[in-house]
Amino acid sequence: MWVELLAVHPDYQRRGTGAQLLDGLGEVYLVVRAGNEGALAFYRRVGFEVVEVWSGYYGDGEDGEVLFHKETTN
Ligand SMILES: CC(C)(COP(=O)(O)OP(=O)(O)OC[C@H]1O[C@@H](n2cnc3c(N)ncnc32)[C@H](O)[C@@H]1OP(=O)(O)O)[C@@H](O)C(=O)NCCC(=O)NCCS
């Protein structure tokens, strides 16, 4: 499945909520701004890998990094 957006309220970040939301979804693809270092660190931490880079994907010209995770149990 493609995940369009994953977000945890700033007051509740770094409590494991993001990882729990992805748990058990099966194969997951999503795209993240190349400059979103926090999100990229999060996705790497929960086992995602960059499988493609979409050059200039966002309206402001920023690249999108396509991430994939086979299993979502953490
Ligand atoms: C990305 C996001 C969903 C993560 O949710 P979260 O509930 O804070 O993540 P978790 O608490 O499950 O984090 C698990 C691990 O990922 C890593 N991680 C999470 N956020 C991180 C950050 N900002 N910087 C570096 N590592 C991070 C850490 O290793 C963390 O474990 P730790 O807190 O024990 O060190 C959240 O930061 C968010 O909503 N960001 C804004 C929206 C966004 O950019 N979404 C992604 C695009 S779809």
Give a topology summary:
Layout: H1 17-22, E1 28-33, H2 37-45, E2 49-54, E3 64-69
Antiparallel strand pairs: 1-3, 2-3
The structure holds coenzyme A (COA).
What does this protein structure show overall?
It is a single chain. The model has no long low-confidence stretch (mean pLDDT 94). The protein has a domain at 21-69. The chain has helices at residues 17-22, 37-45; strands at residues 28-33, 49-54, 64-69. By secondary structure, it is of the alpha+beta class. The chain is 20% helix and 24% strand. Coenzyme A (COA) is lined by residues 5-8, 13-19, 30, 32, 36, 38-39, 41-42, 45.
Q: Tell me the series of helices and strands, N- to C-terminal.
A: HEHEE
Briefly note the structural class of the backbone. alpha+beta
Strand order of the largest sheet: 1-3-2
Our estimate of the beta-strand percent is 15-25%
Tertiary shape: globular
- The whole-angstrom Rg is 12 Å
Structure ligands: coenzyme A
| DSSP, total strands | 3
Q: Roughly what percent helix? A: 10-25%
What key phrases describe this protein's structure?
binds coenzyme A; alpha+beta; 24% strand
Offer a concise description of the structure.
With 74 residues, the chain is of the alpha+beta class.
